[in-house]
Amino acid sequence: MDSAHGLAEAAGKLGVTEEILLLAAHAKVLSVLTGEGAVQLGHGGRVVVRDGTWRDLVEATAASRVEPHTPVFDDERVAGYHAKALSLLIADPDADHDAETLLGDEELHLQVHGMAGRQRELPNRRMHELFEERVERHPDAIAAECRGERWTYRELNARANRIAHFLLGKEIQAEDVVAVISERNLDWMAAVLGVFKAGAVYLPIEPNFPAERIEAMLTRSNAAVRLTEPVLKAITGGPTTNPNVAVEQDQLAYIYFTSGSTGQPKGAMCEHGGMINHLYAKIDDLGIDEGAAVAQTAPQCFDISLWQLVSALLVGGRTVIVPQQDILDINRFLDTVEKAEVEVLQLVPSYLEVVLSELEVRPRELPALRCVSVTGEAIKKELVQRWFAHRPNGTLVNAYGLTETSDDTNHEVMTEVPATESVPLGKPVANVTVYVLDERLRPAPLGSVGEIAFSGICVGRGYINDPERTAAAFMDDPLRPGQRMYRSGDFGRWLPDGRLEFLGRRDAQVKIRGFRIEIGEVENRLLGAPGVKDAAVVVADGPQLVAFFSAAGDLTGEQLLAHAAESLAEYMVPSAAHRLDKLPLTDNGKIDKKALKAAADDLSRQGYVAPATDAERRLAAVWAEVLGVPVDKIGADADFFELGGTSLSAVRLAIKLKPAVSLTDITAAPTLSKLAALVEQAG
Description:
Elements: H1 3-14, H2 18-34, E1 38-40, E2 46-48, H3 54-63, H4 76-91, H5 105-114, H6 127-137, E3 142-146, E4 149-152, H7 153-169, E5 177-181, H8 186-197, E6 201-205, H9 211-221, E7 225-228, H10 229-234, E8 252-258, E9 266-271, H11 272-286, E10 293-296, H12 304-310, E11 318-321, H13 324-327, H14 330-339, E12 344-347, H15 349-361, E13 371-374, H16 381-390, E14 395-402, E15 407-414, E16 427-428, E17 432-437, E18 450-456, E19 462-463, H17 467-473, E20 474-476, E21 484-494, E22 500-505, E23 509-512, E24 515-518, H18 519-527, E25 532-540, E26 544-551, H19 557-565, E27 576-579, H20 593-605, H21 614-627, H22 647-657, H23 663-668, H24 672-681
Parallel strand pairs: 3-11, 5-6, 5-7, 10-11, 12-13, 13-14, 26-27
Antiparallel strand pairs: 1-2, 3-4, 8-9, 9-19, 14-15, 15-16, 17-18, 18-21, 20-21, 21-22, 23-24, 25-26
Helix pairs in contact: 1-4, 2-3, 2-4, 7-8, 15-16, 15-22, 21-22, 21-24
GO cellular component, one term: cytoplasm
GO molecular function, one term: phosphopantetheine binding
Domain Carrier: 610-683
């Protein structure tokens, strides 16, 4: 049967014109391309493309008619979607119109195979074994430094070996979890290497985390040994020889805990193969080679801390550990980068903005610095423009990935401002396959919106001792049998040149200061407080978390936040908690988050006292810029930190107010009126 005859016959059976069938197919294609359940056709009609049959879609299209319209096929690929949609409609009007993909075999093959990262052969050795090879080649070269203290490759290896033999003396077995509870310093670095050398699993824990959260991580992971700073200091003897424990590529390497929606943090497990693949992606794309200095700046609980710590060791480079106190002092931080001749540096975009703000006011050459990578949160194009205006010959790399996928999976390597409206996430790194999928886990048409998913060596093993949450996100890859796939919950689309663009989150997960936070975990912690009946958290301007709750008794917002701080990391604790008699509900009985966000804005205005002096008004404008909040929300009695200020934004403020006030002044006098008085005193 030819297509024209088939179209006419199907139209007759369905009691509509042939044009209605063409429009129904067109509506289906538009819905697939845009990811929208309702589409506007050229004739002015709006068609809701609900689940159902082709017949249902034809009837919905017929009901939307105004005037004749001829659909326009933009290119050969979209025309192919139309042709397949018509073919399926004609073949069986009563079939589910979403049962088959509109993509042809060629595009399916392109997305599954042609758009993956390049194939890169990996050495059949683990990270610590490659480090040991470098120890043999140049034992007296500097491997790491921290605040002026330097260790050679020989010294670092000897210290790591002592720790490894200590662990083996504790009868550590393959894949036993070892918690390293230490500040970021050279001993921490040796401990990480020692854990790997012993064939154990590295679990980083920040010592300043609430005791309840630390205990939850230790319990969930079944940590066999805890390497605290006192324990590490006590390991002064023992063998310094390599333990030579056999470690396989598919053996578990590390666990990083991220925020979890159920109220408990979830521990993402990643294997040695994924780790080594990511390390080589960084080495290749950031140009890390022998002698190169890489800065280690990220907190231990942030997965990027690991590649920053060990990537240089694989190629004979040098790791420069920058303690958190030095990062919070922008001048000390830049002094470290300059004096240590750091070549490769990774920062969250918000801190890169701090660095640029300082350099724009007080320029420095930083001649060794040639590559800066940003990650952890979306980078705005304006910041990229500022970067290249300041360093036109530098390289800026936008890195994207998730803890569950062995860290970054995409690199956008930029030597100039991209021509796209937003900053792309880039192409997949070597040996990594990235998909953009529709709701049925099929590749979405190129350029259309879908969920970002990952396949291959990068995909971790799931969440430790958490089968339910593992099953919800990890699965066998339906497109590449034998591979694991991870659904990220991020939405994006492919750009015409094969780069990935990020478009937002599917769920209630947000990023605050570069850290992933599940709103549900914060809410569950609040709900667990004695007397709390109901609780909800919204993201207010800043961004910052603001909580609302109802409770029995006389529980105050301050008491509730203190309860939250007992188990949540500092960056997860809401900046304010407001008590209500009852939380507002939507028509279907759910908590009305939009109403609560509006209430957060209104509450910020209560008790508002307008800035009275020129200094207060000028300072309010600076606060508005730094905090990202409207200036009319900032009253004379406003507290910088209650408005969402963090240690990082306080550094940004100090830079803008130099030399009138310091970071210490902001911490001691955080209200607008008091800080304005200090500015006036300084002239």
